[in-house]
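subagent[fold] <- orchestrator: predict structure for attached chain, return tokens only, no commentary.
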Amino acid sequence: MTRASDQNVVLTGFMGTGKTTVGRLIARELGWAFVDTDDVIVARHGPIDAIFAEQGESGFRAIEREVAAEVARSRHHVIATGGRMLLDRANADALTVAGRVFCLVASTDEIIRRLRADVDGPVRPLLSGDDPAAAVARLLDERAAGYGQFEQVRTTGRPPRDIAADIIERLGV
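subagent[fold] -> orchestrator:
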């Protein structure tokens, strides 16, 4: 059996739930490397919206699978995944074997608040629609079963340091 100290920590969940912020804190505390799979994709292939425009969703998902397989081979990494990455069975299988997966969850209102506050973050087309809260709620509902297969960590109303400490405590390291 693999001990928690030999594994990676994998964070999944909807956009705006805190994967990158919390992941960096966990990595710093454990002295591990941090990797954001979306950042890897952008560094290698360009902006995600451009990948979608040029290669379509299937092209983007193929790139995601390559990155998931690659980071699954690492050890002592905290891995923040794109919001849909672990909804793909191949990615979920690879990263579940490679580490302990936590799904960060937040309320629709909290997600909207965080995304609007992230002025330096990526463009969020979801926020430009007529009813962003309804769009977020619909997507959360569609993804509930997929996200529900992983250990849940509530982030609404909690400071990132407390969330990181909670996850580290659950790891038992």
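orchestrator: received. Logging for downstream: The radius of gyration is 15 Å. The beta strands are 8-13, 33-36, 77-80, 99-105, 151-154.
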